[in-house]
Design brief:
By secondary structure, the protein is an all-alpha fold. The protein has a domain at about 85-155 and about 190-275. About 85% of the residues lie in helices and about 0% in strands. It contains eleven helices and no strands. The protein has helices at about 1-25, 25-30, 45-60, 65-75, 80-85, 85-125, 135-140, 145-160, 170-190, 195-225, 230-300. Helix 5 crosses helix 11.
């Protein structure tokens, strides 16, 4: 019996001693890691840090993603600013664009017209250079129309209407008056369109400035409504307003330059017209002198 009791005590004592050994064995391994075991980085704690860094890189200085920042930059193009502008600013821009189109149309038309007139008048003056009378000059010109033909016709008409009048000074004076009227009419005709250029060049900057003032006023109204002075809110409206000034300068600067150019070219053409008037007056004077010479010769006979 004593042996059986001792065996039962040993059987009960064995599991109790094994449990601390099983539970206590990993403790030294956890508290004292082996030098040979590699250090494993904590994957769970590093994931939020990487996500935060990526989010910080993805945000720009205005607190927006790069895609939204790039789209904002693309929106500030001249066409998009024109579409986003106020209706009055749009009307100003369209009017200035039409004025610029008129300027270049007048430029092309006047360039062709002045070049053609100068070339034809120089050629006509060369044809009558050796003419001895008004009839010879008209025969040399033929049926071509021009200011020189008009001057010669006016001189011949005055000589025909003044037949029988012995005062040559009166005939020349009346012929000069008719020639001056033709020259003034030619000067008015050649200056057609130049007044429009002068008007566009003088008024376009002020029209563009009006659109700019109106756009900036609307921008300040938008600032007061949004209760913010952020540059991202203010810049689009101001850029749209300044675009009107740019349109005004684009219309005005070429108009002024083209007007000054045509003023010089027109002055040169009118000098040619004055030469043509002088040529007609000289031919008339020769005809009058030749008439008196023939009259005296007949009287002498």
């Amino acid at each position: 019996m004593a042996r059986l009791f001792a065996l039962a005590l040993l059987t009960l004592a064995a599991p109790a001693s094994a449990q601390p050994a099983a539970t206590g064995a990993p403790a030294p391994a956890a508290s004292q890691p082996s030098a040979a075991a590699p250090a494993v980085p904590p994957t769970v704690s590093s994931a939020p840090a990487l996500e935060t860094d990526a989010h910080a890189v993805a945000m720009d200085s205005m607190g927006r993603p790069p895609s939204s920042s790039n789209s904002g930059l693309h929106e500030l193009s001249p066409w998009s600013m024109f579409l986003a502008a106020d209706i009055l600013v749009k009307a100003v821009m369209v009017g200035l664009a039409f004025a610029s189109l008129v300027t270049w149309t007048v430029c092309i038309a006047k360039t062709i017209e002045l070049a053609t007139l100068q070339r034809s008048l120089r050629a006509a003056l060369g044809r009558i250079f050796e003419a001895k009378s008004l009839a010879d000059a008209q025969h040399a010109l033929g049926s071509k129309e021009g200011v020189l033909s008009s001057l010669l016709a006016a001189a011949m008409r005055e000589a025909r209407l003044s037949a029988g009048i012995s005062s040559d000074a009166g005939i020349k004076e009346r012929a000069a008056s008719s020639g001056a009227e033709i020259v003034r009419a030619e000067a008015r005709r050649i200056r057609i369109g130049m007044g429009l250029l002068a008007t566009i060049g003088a008024t376009s900057p002020f029209v563009g400035l009006f659109g700019t003032v109106w756009g900036i006023m609307n921008s300040f109204i938008g600032i007061s409504k949004s209760q913010t002075t952020n540059l991202a809110v203010v810049a689009p409206g101001i850029a749209e307003a300044l675009l009107a000034t740019a349109f005004g300068l684009v219309a005005a600067i070429p108009a002024v330059i083209i007007y000054n150019h045509f003023a010089r070219v027109t002055k040169g053409y009118l000098e040619l017209v004055s030469r043509a008037q002088g040529a007609a007056a000289r031919l008339l004077s020769r005809d009058l002198d030749r008439t008196h010479v023939s009259a005296h010769s007949r009287a002498a006979e």
